[in-house]
Specification:
alpha+beta, about 100 residues, two-stranded antiparallel sheet, about 35% helix
Length: about 100
């Protein structure tokens, strides 16, 4: 099986938001939403997920898909419950 993995490098804008979005967005008002949040801090970083994906694609090049899945599946990223490697494993697993 051949896979094409794409990613682009760009700036990620990372904002600190101390509240939960569920406290500010009302489910019964999703048809009429205008979002504006004040954030206490913001930073820009070069790379992010696209950079990770580009790096991962070079590391797994030529590796059997099942081995990639076994190595990358379940790797977390902070509190997200998933990660760039985990998403790659999920995409490969879905297409096997």
């Amino acid at each position: 099986m051949s896979s094409l993995i794409c990613g682009s490098l760009a700036y990620d804008t990372i904002m600190s938001f101390p509240e939960r979005f569920s406290e500010s967005i009302l489910a019964d008002q999703l048809h009429n939403i205008n979002v504006c949040f004040l954030v206490p801090s913001m930073r820009r970083e070069f790379g992010g997920c696209a950079g990770n994906t580009a790096g991962l694609s070079k590391l797994v090049e030529g590796m059997p898909a099942r081995e990639v899945i076994a190595r990358l599946k379940g790797i977390p990223c902070g509190l997200r419950g998933t990660s760039c490697p985990d998403q790659l494993a999920a995409a490969l697993e879905k297409n096997l």
